[in-house]
Amino acid sequence: MILKEYILVKNNNELPSLFEKSEYEIPLENVLDREQLCDCISNIYKLDISFVEYVFIIGINKQNKILGIIEAGKGNTFEVTNNIKEIFMFLLLIGADKFIHIHNHPQTEILECSKDDIQVIQTIKKSAELLGIELMDALIITDKDNIRYTDIC
């Protein structure tokens, strides 16, 4: 499967557009396979050895085909800011019907949600519902494991 990474840029009319930054061949057979998906994303972006937190958003269509991925936040060792406006610009521009939120916790084996993590996912979920876009999953990746927000939050 091909995974296309995008960044948001301004076009000639100063409006947001997508620019294809990179393209990756990934050994992912089913986007619903959480373990395989997390392994692919972790391997591409080296999340298992990263010193900083990242947020990635994967846009998906109704047939569960990945439309693309965007880095929606880069933080420091202990936190990352989700750029919610950028998340939904990306999802709308790519024509996503649903999406997966992926967030890493660097340098820790502890799989837990902070109050901020919980609040951000709740805000993203409510915003997505208003736009008719389904939040399929929200995942945390550490150097040892990965888990769904709904399993621990």
Account of the 3D structure:
There is one protein chain. By secondary structure, this protein is α/β, with parallel strands linked by helices. Helices cover 29% and strands 35% of the residues. The protein has helices spanning 34-45, 84-94, 115-131, 149-152, and strands spanning 2-10, 16-25, 54-60, 66-74, 98-104, 134-141, 146-148. It has a 7-stranded mixed sheet with strand order 2-1-4-3-5-6-7, sandwiched between helices. A hairpin with a 5-residue loop joins strand 1 and strand 2 (16-25). The radius of gyration is 15 Å and the shape is globular. The protein starts with a strand and ends with a helix.
Can you tag this structure with a few keywords?
29% helix, alpha/beta, 153 residues, seven-stranded mixed sheet
Strand content: 25-35%
Q: So how many helices?
A: 4
Helix content: 25-40%
Distance between the termini: 31 Å
Spans of at least 5 consecutive residues with low confidence: none
Structural class: alpha/beta
Q: Radius of gyration in whole Å, from Cα?
A: 15 Å
Biggest sheet layout: 7 strands, mixed
Order of helices and strands: EEHEEHEHEEH
The shape is: globular
Number of strands: 7
Whole-number average pLDDT? Answer: 89
Order of strands in the sheet with the most strands?
2-1-4-3-5-6-7
